[in-house]
Amino acid sequence: MAILSHTKSPVALLAFHALLFLCFKSEANCRTGCDLSYASYYVWEGSNLTYISNIFGRSITEILRYNPTVPNQDSIHSGSRINVPFSCECLNGDFLGHTFSYITQSGDTYRKVAERAFTNLTTVDWVQRINDYPPSQIPDYVPINVTVNCSVWRWRCVEGLWVVCDVPSSCGGDFVVRGGGV
């Protein structure tokens, strides 16, 4: 007759957890990204193509290529939207996104970066989650990471391009198709 022990050996526990890990191993939510994505960027008063170009790490010439209705870099109007190209990678096998390096300005908060600099293309939570600085102590003129998540509801694929918008209605109709340069 076998006598059952109520104590568990460390080897048995380790084997049990290894078995659970193998049985319930999750698949990556993405495998590849999108080489060409574009953001529908809201041009706020005081911003200009040089500023937008610096934030997204794209040349003004490249941005203008995706905005055929903008005749030149000096004619961008606040309150309008422009398409800004970038790549959307599979980050950590978990989601589609892109992490930009942003140099903080005097008085920046995670909220200002998410809502003003990146015009709600990301969230305060996303910016705060991937940076080590406490929200009330972000140093001036240091690089922080800003991740734009391409997998959230704001994204959809239009003729092979991923498009991001800060509100769903801003990606409607012919703005997306003609404005995307496709």
UniProtKB/TrEMBL annotation:
PROSITE patterns: LYSM. Residues 39-84 form the LysM domain. It is found in: Cell membrane. Keywords: Cell membrane, Disulfide bond, Membrane, Signal, Transmembrane, Transmembrane helix. Residues 1-28 form the signal peptide. The keyword Disulfide bond applies. Gene3D superfamilies: LysM domain (3.10.350.10). One of its GO terms (cellular component) is plasma membrane. It is a single-pass membrane protein. GO terms for molecular function: transmembrane receptor protein kinase activity. One of its GO terms (biological process) is innate immune response. InterPro entries: CERK1/LYK3-like, LysM, LysM_dom_sf. PANTHER family: CHITIN ELICITOR RECEPTOR KINASE 1 (PTHR46204:SF2), CHITIN ELICITOR RECEPTOR KINASE 1-RELATED (PTHR46204). This is LysM domain-containing protein. It comes from Liquidambar formosana.
